[in-house]
Amino acid sequence: MVTSQESVERKLRSSLSGIQKVPKVLALASLCVVVLCLDSLLQELGAVGKGSQIRYFVAEILAVSACMIVPAVILHMRGSARARNRKMTVPARMDMNREVASPDGSMSEGEDSPPRRNLQKRSHLDAAKSEKAASLTRWNQAINNAAKANDQERAEKLMLEVERLGLQPDTISYNSVIHACAKLGDIPRAEQWLDRMRRSNVEPNTISYNIIMDACVKADDAEAAESWLARMLEDNVQANEVSYATVIHARAKRGDTALAEAWLEKMINAGVAPNIVSYNSLIYACGRRGDAQGAERWVMEVEARGLTARVTTYTAVVDACAKCGDVARAERWIEKMFASDIEPNVVSYSAMIDACAKAGNPARAEHWHRVMREKGVQPNAHSFSAVINACAKAGDVPAACHHLQQMEEAGVPLDVVVYSGVLDACAKVGDAERATQVFQKMQEHGIQPNVVSYASLARPFAHRGNWRQVEMLADQMKAQGLALNEYFLYTLLLAYAGARPRQGDRAEAAFREARLLGVEMNKHVQSALSRAVGRTRCQQLMQELGCAEEVPGAARAHRPAKFNKEGSGSVGN
After folding, report:
1. Which end of the chain is more exposed for a tag (fewer CB within 10 A), N or C?
2. Residue 90, number of CB atoms within 10 A of its CB
3. Are the CB atoms for 464 and 430 separated by under 8 Å?
4. In degrees rounded to 5, what are phi and psi of residue 104?
5. Which residues contact 351 (CB under 8 A, 6 or more apart)?
6. List of residues 6+ apart from 68 with CB closer than 8 A
7. Using one digit for the tens of pLDDT, what is the confidence trace for 479-500?
8. Using an 8 Å Cβ cutoff, are 567 and 417 in contact?
9. Cβ atoms within 10 A of the Cβ of 110, count?
10. What DSSP letter does each residue of 3-48 carry, written as one string?
11. pLDDT tens figures, 189-248
């Protein structure tokens, strides 16, 4: 049943709704018309006698008052109606939470009933948990961003702030701060956070251990990496392919092929399938030792297991062939890359050129350098250095200078290693004048010479017996803060030996000074000393200064120093 009050309110809302629908412009126009009519009527009344004037003033006051009051009343009624509408709406929503009478007179479950209270309590708890989870997610993101930015201090401060706010850090939180420490090589601090993680009843996972193991490998601490893997297994944390690949790489990096292979066997026995990364580490280890056959054996196993070899896989095999100077073998693997639709990169080509340089085959080195450019692979400093080194070994100075010019035209940054290669080519043929030009050009480009550069420049003068020029270069080198080493000492002694007359006293003085500086006295240095002071006096100096007693024959002393592509020297050809 609808009550009379509800009927009145409904009619009132209906009338107000009708008024609200009238456009504001029309309402104002109507009001103006009413005012105009009243004003005309009042003017007619004012035109009559004096008594009528009194009525005119009263009527005018009433008219003005009506024009002010009527709109105000309408606006007030409209506001009251809206307020009543709100009052009627809000309780309607609230009645859902109150006890109401059911048709049979019993009370239905409302806000005060036990089930409703339990539901509300659970709802509040769920909302609080959801809010905390969202907040922790934001903190984890901030910690992770700090770790990526290598900001260990900020990552740790954020983690401590999380704990201070009463939030419970999760595995992601701890792994992020552990990663921040490990990236900067702060392994002790990373280990402390792992222990704190455990004390907080948050169990470390595979990622936690892998982060620390990777940091140990980067610090070249294979034993520590293996220790953490053992601890990981003791804690019943499942090691994955990354875990085993990390320790395999640690041993391969050191050249410990046997231990690396042992870890691969443990990996397979544990039911963890090796990935290509594990095999690449083993192939790399073989490459460092120049074990081309061993590298090939591992590639065959990769193919047998159905794994996809990468460009780095084949490049490691080519490098192994390069170490032993087997050009034909290296070329077969480059060709196999082409056949497998794997495009060699600049590192692959550089390894191939290295193989040619090692074998003393500059023609093939230049061939592969040309192929690389034709394939659209941009040469870098290493590839140019490799081909220049091949030319240097053959004593082809024009070709070495040509590639140096090509390198400059290609916009590849020049460095001291490349210039040392060209200087070595000049030294091979005794071209002191060209060597001096190259050395000056290097200095003009703002490249600081190293001791190998000075030794290469001095060698042509040394073979001419021009000890004064070699001494002058030694003084320049010393003025630049470069310490004398066995390569330059050999060159200096060679200059004294080749002088006419021979400069034995100077050679002995230079040898004594070098001994005091801790310079290594290898067989090549002793051979040059023997030529400069004589075999008998050389033996006496060796005994007096505590050097090796066995002095090689003078027949080998004339052999000049040679330098590899990295710029490090080795005396003798």
Report:
1. N
2. 10
3. yes
4. -90, 5
5. 315, 318, 319, 322, 330
6. none
7. 999 999 999 999 999 999 999 9
8. yes
9. 13
10. -HHHHHHHHHHHHHHHHHHS-HHHHHHHHHHHHHHHHHHHHHHHTS
11. 999 999 999 999 999 999 999 999 999 999 999 999 999 999 999 999 999 999 999 999
Q: Which residue stretches of the chain have pLDDT < 70?
A: 1-68, 70-133, 548-573
- 3 state DSSP class of 157: helix
Residue 560: asked if its preceding bond is cis (omega within 30°), the reply is: no
Could you report the per-residue pLDDT of 527-565, keeping only the tens digit for each? 999 999 999 999 999 889 887 544 444 334 334 444 443
Residues 391, 457: Cα–Cα separation, whole Å: 17
User: Whole-angstrom Cα distance, residue 484 to residue 463?
Assistant: 19
Amino acid symbol at 223: E
How far apart are the C-alpha atoms of 491 and 372, rounded to whole Å? Answer: 37
Residues linked to residue 570 through DSSP beta bridges, in sequence order: 562
- Helices 346-358 and 327-339 cross at an angle (nearest 10°) of 160
Collapsing DSSP states into helix, strand and coil, what is residue 101? Answer: strand
Q: Are 187 and 214 in contact (CB under 8 A)?
A: no
pTM over 0.70: no
The tokens for 10 are 């409904």
Q: Distance (Å, rounded) from C-alpha 221 to C-alpha 226? A: 9
Among left, alpha and beta (phi > 0; psi -120 to 50; other), residue 294 is alpha
Tokens of 552: 């090689």
CA dist., res. 350 & res. 318, Å (int): 10
Q: With contact defined as beta carbons under 8 Å apart, do 254 and 246 qualify?
A: no
**Paired tokens of 535:** 């075999």
> If you compute the radius of gyration of the chain from its CA atoms, what whole number of angstroms results?
46
CB 369 within 8 A of CB 379: yes
DSSP codes, 533-569: H-HHHHHHHHHHTT--S----GGGTTPPEEE-TTS-E
CA end-to-end span of the chain: 118
How many whole angstroms separate alpha carbon 35 and alpha carbon 64?
A: 8
Residue 62's identity, in one-letter code, is L
d(CA 436, CA 457): 7
Helix runs in 149-238, H state only:
152-164, 171-183, 187-199, 206-218, 222-234
**Burial of 415: CB neighbours in 10 Å, binned 0-12, 13-18, 19+:** middle
Q: Are 496 and 482 spatial neighbours (Cβ–Cβ below 8 Å)?
A: no
Helix and strand element counts for the chain (H, E): 27, 2
Residue 107 DSSP SS3? strand
Q: What is the number of alpha carbons within 13 Å of residue 412 lying toward its C-beta?
A: 16
Residues 6 or more apart whose Cβ sits within 8 Å of residue 406: 384
Amino acid at the residue 474: A
Contacts of 97 (CB under 8 A, 6+ apart): 110, 111, 116
